[in-house]
Amino acid sequence: MTVTVETGLWQLDPTASAVTVRHKTFWGLLTVKGTFAGVTGRGEVSADGTATGTLAIDAASLDTGHKKRDDHLRSADFFDVANHPEITFAVRGAKRSAGDAVQVDGQLTVRGISRPQQVTAQLVSADADGLTLEAEFTVVREEFGVSMNQMRMMGGPTTVTATLRFTRAAA
Fold first, then answer.
1. Which contacts (CB < 8 Å, 24+ apart) does range 127-132 have?
2. How confident is the model at residue 129 (pLDDT cuts 50, 70, 90)?
3. Is the four-CA dihedral 57, 86, 109, 159 of positive or negative sign?
4. Which comes out higher in pLDDT, residue 19 or 143?
5. In the chain, pLDDT over 70 holds for what percent of residues?
6. In sequence order, which residues have a C-beta less than 8 Å from that of residue 74 and are 6 or more positions away?
7. Rounded to an integer, what distance in angstroms lies between the CA atom of residue 123 and that of residue 134?
8. Residue 76: which region, alpha, beta or left (left: phi > 0; alpha: psi -120 to 50)?
9. pLDDT per residue as tens digits for the range 78-117
10. Per 3-state DSSP, what percentage of the chain is helix, strand, and coil (rounded to 5)?
11. DSSP tag of 96
């Protein structure tokens, strides 16, 4: 399926979008999954087909289904939401490649630390009402100052999965 994306401004529809994380703990025996409830964003598609934009995630909105764990993830040991309430992904450039793949060059900022992040997303739908992108990538949390690892139980990367629905922004 090859779809066409209209130029202009696009606004994230938070009710039709989801950003989730998965991380193996306890020496790889258990996978912790969580969803960020607070996600906002916007983007712009230019006439040459490239796109830029920003995705902002409310770090305190992470829900893993376990209050004590969620409180700990919000603490200074992990996301430090008191000092860094947002996780951002700034898209410096995105361009369609083969088929419906979109190569995204961005900058991920967690706990005030920014790192380049390249992602391959899939444009899964585009119509007059909006467009939907899906992506999955890994993050090495130690690169963002998240180094708490009691008894070496939390090694390895964290997988981030995003389904992002954008609608045409009001002019």
1. 127/3, 129/167, 129/168, 130/10, 130/13, 130/165, 130/166, 130/167, 130/168, 131/3, 131/5, 131/10, 131/165, 131/166, 132/16, 132/163, 132/164, 132/165, 132/166
2. confident
3. negative
4. 19
5. 89
6. 59, 60, 62, 81
7. 7
8. alpha
9. 889 999 999 999 999 999 898 899 999 999 999 999 999 9
10. 10, 55, 35
11. E
Q: Is residue 157 within 8 Å of residue 140, measured between CB atoms?
A: yes
Q: Which helix (H) or strand (E) segment is 99 a member of?
A: none
Residue entry with tokens 């008894």: 151
Which of 20-24, 36-40, 80-84, 149-153 has the least mean pLDDT?
149-153
Cα–Cα dist 73/58, whole Å: 13
Structural domains in the chain, CATH included, are 8-168 (2.40.128.110)
Structure tokens at 54: 């920003």
Residue for token pair 């934009």 = 53
Spacing of C-alpha 147 from chain mean position? 20
